[in-house]
Amino acid sequence: MPTVLAGVLLFTAVSCDKDDDDKPLSNKYNVTGSASGAQEVPVVASNGTATIVSTYDADANTLAYTITWADLNDNVNNMHFHGPADPTISAGVAIAITGWTATKAGTISSTATLTETQEAELLGGKWYYNIHTPFKTSGEIRGNLTATRQ
C-alpha cells in the first residue's frame, strides 16, 4: 500500500506542472476579413474582392491594418469601418478609412485608435469594412471582421 500511495503522490506532483499556466494572455489580436459583393446588405453583383490583414493592440487601443482590393466595377470613392452589426445587418460608420487611391485595385495601410466601446464591438465580431464606388454608393463590397487573440 505505501508503494501505491507514493506512486499517486509522484503522479500528482508531475501532473501539476504550471509552466504554461503562468504565461499571461496576449492583448494583441489578428483581425481578418475577406470582402465581396455577396456580403453587402443587400447583396451586390460585383467581381470585386478585398482582404484585410490587421493587428489590434488592446493595450494601446490601436488597429494597424492593410486592405488590398481588386476587380471593382468602378474606382473607390470611400471606405469605412462600420459597426456594431451582425453579418446580415448594416450599421453606421465607426471609423473612416482615409488615404486610399481612387482606383479599381489597390492597397491602403494605416492605423486607427478605438474607443473602449469600439474595441468591444470589434473583438465581439460586430464590425465590418466596406468599399464604396460610384457603381454602388452604399458599398460595392463588404468584409465582416473576425478577431483572434495571438
What is the assigned CATH homologous superfamily? Superoxide dismutase, copper/zinc binding domain
Could you name the CATH class? Mainly Beta
CATH domain fold name: Immunoglobulin-like
Rg computed from alpha carbons, rounded to a whole number of angstroms: 22 Å
Q: Could you estimate the helical fraction of the residues in percent?
A: 10-25%
Choose one word for the global shape: globular
Please trace the helix and strand order, writing H or E for each element.
Answer: HEEEEEEHEEE
Number of domains: 1
Q: Extract low-pLDDT stretches.
A: 4-14
CATH architecture: Sandwich
Briefly note the structural class of the backbone: mainly beta
The percent range for strand residues is 35-45%
* Tally of strands: 9
For the biggest sheet, the summary is:
5 strands, antiparallel
- Average pLDDT reading: 90
- How large is the count of helical segments? 2
The side-by-side strand order for the widest beta sheet comes to 6-3-2-1-9
* Cα distance spanning the termini: 47 Å
Helix-strand layout with pairing:
Elements: H1 2-15, E1 28-36, E2 49-57, E3 62-70, E4 78-82, E5 93-96, E6 106-113, H2 116-123, E7 128-133, E8 136-144, E9 146-149
